[in-house]
Amino acid sequence: MDSETGGIELDEKVSGLADLGRLLTAFSDALEATGASDRLRRRALLVMEELTANVLSHAGEGVSASLRLRAVADEAAIKISYPGPAFDPTDPENVPIPNPDRPGGHGLRLIQALSTHLCYVRHTNRNSVHAFIRQED
Questions:
Q1: DSSP letter string over 56-116?
Q2: Minimal CA–CA distance to 123: which of 79, 60, 76?
Q3: Global confidence as pTM
Q4: I need a labelling partner for 63 at 20 to 30 A (CA). Which of 5, 14, 28, 123 fits?
């Protein structure tokens, strides 16, 4: 924890869905240490889980991603960066309408709804998605 801001920063690597449980626990503990409200923690953890699951499920076999969490009591920022073809989850053309006859397909819409701000950056062969979640009054 940063003694000046009361904030935290965590950097993790993730290479499979099996890593999610460990990451959720580490991020939850870190968010709790900042004094973040339960609501902010739940929103941030769900965004982190959905971002990670989407990357690992759709970015290609054997992809490894870098995950960074920065947080203070009233705001969390999550960044996931991974190699692969360009994919901008903020572009409405890339967010399909879920099929009501099949489970799934709601992750990107959920990320957009829970994030205060969502942005995408492409640098060389890497995609980076940044999600910002602020405490709502």
A1: HHHS-TT--EEEEEEEETTEEEEEEEEESS---TTSGGGSPPPPTTSS---HHHHHHHH-S
A2: 79
A3: 0.84
A4: 28
